[in-house]
Amino acid sequence: MNKVPRYQIALVRKKSIPWPSIKFSGSHNVWEFGKQLTETADREQFWALMLDAKNMLIGVNLVSQGTLSASLVSPREVLKPAILLNSAAIVVFHNHPSGDPNPSVEDKQCTSLLRAACEVVGIRFLDHVIIGESEYFSFSDTQGRTLS
Prior knowledge:
- The protein is built from four helices and five strands.
- With 148 residues, the chain is α+β, with helices and mostly antiparallel strands.
- It has a domain at 28-60 and 80-125 and 133-142: 3-Layer(aba) Sandwich (Cytidine Deaminase, domain 2), CATH 3.40.140.10.
- Helix 2 packs parallel to helix 3 (105-121).
- The N and C termini lie far apart (53 Å).
- Helices cover 29% and strands 23% of the residues.
- Strand 1 and strand 2 form a beta hairpin.
């Protein structure tokens, strides 16, 4: 008789980031939060913010750290912590070390894939924000959407 392994999934808290309780009501909130996490990064970092039903932050996850100009992102890796935290919604952001927040073709494709994957699992995809040196780009803002 073959043996089938049994697994248990556990969510492990690594450390906390000091931040006042915040409701993410717009892309500017995401930019303010994200620029502090990425300000010293010398390469692209892709982060996911997990939110409750009222868009209050319940967790943050560094999904991927890439190169100077690219970061590999899989919808599965973005959604795994969101599902484990029972997130109602997510916002993702990444930095452009060049300082230019304009989206690349890959950024646009990534956003479309994430939006579709979130729809399948029932998690609201609110925004993808690209953090530049002194400004940012928001996919939701360009589409006239809000984070609510």
